[in-house]
Amino acid sequence: MSHHLRHQTRGRTVVGCALLAVALGAGATACGSDDPSSAAPYDASDHISFNGPVEAGQKADPDEPLEILSEDADGRITDVTAVDAAGRRVAGELSADGLRWHSTAPLAAGARYTIRVSTENGDGERGRKVLAFETGEPDEQKRLKVTFGPGAGTYGVGQPLTAELSRPIEDPAQRRVVERSLKVESTPAVEGAWYWVDDEKLHYRPKEYWPAQATIRATSALHGIKIGDRLWGARVKPLEIRTGERVIAVTDAASHTMTVYRNDEAVREIPVTAGKPGFETRNGVKVVLGKESFVRMRSSTVGIAEGSSESYDLPVHFATRVTWSGEYVHAAPWSAGSHGYANVSHGCVGMSTANAKWFFDTVREGDLVEVVNSDGDSMEPFGNGFGDWNVDWGEWRSGSALTGNLPNLVASGESARLRPGSA
Predict the structure, then answer these.
(1) φ, ψ for residue 62 (rounded to 5)?
(2) Where are the beta strands (DSSP E) in 221-264?
(3) Average pLDDT of span 263-276
(4) Coil, helix or strand for 360?
(5) What is the pLDDT of residues 11-30, one digit of tens each?
(6) What does the buried/exposed string (b/e) look like for 165-182 if buried means 16 or more CB atoms within 10 Å of the residue's CB?
(7) What value does the mean pLDDT of the chain take?
(8) Residue 66 scores a pLDDT above 90
(9) pLDDT of 5 higher than 90
(10) Which of 26, 28, 219, 266 is most buried per CB count within 10 Å?
(11) Which among 47, 203, 256, 330 is annotated as catalytic?
């Protein structure tokens, strides 16, 4: 769209009814109607110019607004409709004098558009022109890519979805464009919302935990959509995950016990030891991040100086990770005398080797581990694992860029598309 195509106004002879009537005689009627607008529209091709491609194979730059001009000194544009192949209309504005129409919404990349222009000349006769063109693809370096997480598979009912962006999006309007294009569907249906963790990452979770045995699918309609100045959406690989059984482990640091629930039924009560004074285990809900059958735990990795009274270097078996900073549920045979009686760890939840193996074999990524009655800090919402469930639902919704609308609904089928929610 580097230049305007301007047609020369063709010499169009208009013979009025009055003059023709004189030529034929006072009693003759030639036009058949006194209303010139009742006639079939004339071809307005020579009266219309637009800044689109005119040669075969040429494609318009989708980053440039569309402009249509009237070249008829005695005529004007009365209406313009521009739609793509999917029937989506491009918003536009017509000048008061009817000489110029321009788009006020961005065009999509890689799309075909049909434009219908209606005109009217000085004698009130209606004209029509139909234009068609295609938009090209923007520079690949100006694409916003989105990567959904986690990977495909089966997870616990606490697993949030993530969307990683290839470049930061700070502008609220651009965030709305991005978020509106990220769709989540679930069977069974649940209410949920996206939350902007930072400029390059979003998390998605339901209001409550996911249902057991659910199918969850995340897709994006971002491809070809203009997000900002010279920035367009790229194709996004969809994600489908499933949830398994509803497994929740609750550690009561005051009673030194962990109760494991499967589908809301208590299946095992385990004597444990939690963090001792100065190293209290974090309170709140955490999500299982992974499992390591063996890990070497060294105090130096958590800021405890080697050789100090609190330093340690231990081989640990059946370690289930719940924070990136090093909090695990694991076997702790060295503190067997304290299991069920006292909190003596440096922040992890320790138990017998047999119980740790059972726990390790029972839980999966996305299962929930909750700590109550600890004197420790609260689990961080973000940055140290998935603390998403510690955010109140009203506050979570306020983290969406699509505030002030209807609640989100996640479900299967066309009637259950994601609907943006308000705080």
Answers:
(1) -70, -10
(2) 226-228, 231-233, 239-243, 247-252, 257-262
(3) 97
(4) helix
(5) 333 333 333 333 333 444 44
(6) beeebeeeebbbbbbbbb
(7) 83
(8) no
(9) no
(10) 219
(11) 330
Tokens in use for 349?
A: 């939840």
CA distance 55 to 5: 11
Rounded distance, CA 247 to CA 265, Å?
9
| Pairwise CA distance, residues 11 & 113, whole Å | 30
Three-state SS at 146: strand
What pLDDT is recorded for position 298?
Answer: 62
Q: Does residue 31 have an active-site annotation? A: no
- Cα–Cα distance measured from residue 422 to residue 398, given in angstroms and rounded to the nearest whole number: 7
Q: 329-363, pLDDT tens digit by residue?
A: 999 999 999 999 999 998 999 999 999 999 999 99
Task: For 73-100, write each residue's pLDDT tens digit.
Answer: 778 888 999 998 888 888 999 888 888 9
246: buried, middle or exposed (CB in 10 Å: 19+, 13-18, 0-12)?
buried
Please report, to the nearest 10 degrees, the dihedral formed by the alpha carbons of residues 321, 327, 331, 333 taken in order.
170
The helix (H) or strand (E) run that includes residue 127 is: strand 126-134
The catalytic residue among 203, 339, 346, 348 is: 348
Structure tokens at 146: 């989105």
Euclidean distance between CA atoms 392 and 222, whole angstroms: 29
Q: Are 195 and 400 in contact (CB under 8 A)?
A: yes
Q: What is the pTM of this model?
A: 0.68
348 classed as catalytic = yes
Closest CA to 258 of 137, 377, 370: 370
SS3 193: strand
Give whichever of 14-23, 38-47, 296-305 has the largest mean pLDDT: 38-47
Indicate the helix (H) or strand (E) that contains 179.
Answer: helix 172-181
* Nearest CA among 186, 140, 191, 189 for reference residue 167: 140
d(CA 109, CA 90): 13
